[in-house]
Each structure stands twice: as C-alpha cells, then as structure tokens.
Amino acid sequence: MDNNNVPTTTIDLLCPTLASDPWPALRALRELGPLVWHSEHRRWLVTTDHAVRQVALDYTHFSVEGTVVEDIFGADAFIAMDDRARHNALREIWAPAFRPQALQALRREVQALVQDLLTPLLARLADGEVVDFSAGFTRPLPTMVIARMMGVPRERLADVVRWSDAMAGGSTSFLDAAAREVAVAARESAKTALADYLLALMRERRAAPGDDLVSLMVNATAVAARRCGGTGRRTPGRGRRPDLRAGLRQSRPRALR
C-alpha cells in the first residue's frame, strides 16, 4: 500500500506521559485521519472505531499473517483463523458455555478469584504500601477466569498467568534488539510450556470429560468437522498445506502491517 498520500506520525507510543494521559494524543491521531503511517515503527495505525471494524471483518483483504497475533498463537489457532466458516463452527462448540445461565453459574468462581487477588493488595494498602493494581489485579484476573473456564485447577493458575504474560511480552515491536531477543526466547519457552500443559489436559478430558471448555472442544471433533464440511476426522489446516498457504499469501493484500 502506497503511504505517500496518507498522514504520518512519529508519536512515542511508550512515552510515560502518553501512558498516564493518552486521550489528547489519541484525539490528535484521529484528527489526522482513519489511517496513519507510523514512520519510525513502520506500522499502520487504524484510528477510528469504524475503520477498525472494517479491517477486523474484512477477511478478503486483511490477514493476521506477520502480526503479533500470529507470533503468539500461530496462524491456525482459533483466535487467528481467517476461515470464517471453520471459525464459526468451532465457536458454536463453546457457545453454550457463554450463555447467560452458564455465566451466572460462574459468578461464585469469579467472585472467589477477585477476593483472592484483592485481599493481599488491600492489606498492603492498609500498611501504607504503594500497590500496582494493574499487575496484581486487572492483568491476571481475565486470564484466571478463562483458565478456570477451561478446567485449569486453581493450583496451576499462577503458571498460566506467567506463561500468558511471557507470551505477550515477547511479541511487542517496540523493544531494542537485545531486549527483544531475550523477550522472544521467554515467549517461545512459555508457548512450549503452555502447549505441553494443555495437551496433557486435553488427554485427561478425553478420558474423563467435565463441563469445561476443553472437554467441550476435544469431545466435539465430529460435530465441528461436519459443520466445516469434513468427515468427522481430522480437518486439515493450512499449516499442513504449504502450497495452499503460499497461494493465499500471494493473492491477499498485506496492508496495515
């Protein structure tokens, strides 16, 4: 995509001032236009809600290839999948777990997790300490809730949070070369550890299914394959068809990288 006719910026996205009060800078970016080129990081910035929705829903022209999503999860992971029919079929397997009645049953579990995280933080506040609520509460809580929905026992939640943080930390584009090398190594180690753990959990749930998300997925292979037009056996992914993958890459514009 030709970036000669679009506005550019050199805004420091890691500036402490921006982190503490991002709204003026974000407003200035939106005023430049819906699409802005960051000349230092060599990235496109999509600045409006409407433009973001257009990109996110346009599976024909936009892809996750080459992005942090692919770095973290892989091109054939559910969150990175741009085969809409297959994505929707797999999503339907988990749909019952996100219906109001099922979420209501999860309320006590979430409340217990909130209490577990808040209690030590509030005690430290009472003692006069300065507490980082982002690191100690808002960051781990969503990961812990999803992990519990997947059937991860409480004693392994800290591991999942640690792996998740390392995976995210190793996928930023804004580190210098030395720091990025260390972060990427930590990310890949965390990905391996999380994959090994989840594969073991999947084997357990195949043998003894529960009511968690992993049980729903591993015991619904035939259903998902039928909805994807398959046979009920393994549905080949693009990762096992490098020729198909290369063709898709050549035919799809790679804008907003």
From TrEMBL:
SUPFAM superfamilies xrefs: Cytochrome P450
Identify which cofactors the protein needs according to its UniProt entry: heme
Source taxon at top rank: Bacteria
* InterPro entries attached to this UniProt entry: Cyt_P450_B, Cyt_P450_sf
- Signal peptide region: none
Q: Where is this region: Disordered?
A: 227-257
One MF term in the entry's GO annotations: oxidoreductase activity, acting on paired donors, with incorporation or reduction of molecular oxygen
Hey, which family's this protein in? Belongs to the cytochrome P450 family.
UniProt-listed PANTHER family: CYTOCHROME P450 YJIB-RELATED (PTHR46696:SF1), P450, PUTATIVE (EUROFUNG)-RELATED (PTHR46696)
Q: What name does the UniProt record give this protein?
A: Cytochrome P450
Q: What are the leading ranks of the lineage? A: Bacteria, Pseudomonadati, Pseudomonadota, Gammaproteobacteria, Cellvibrionales
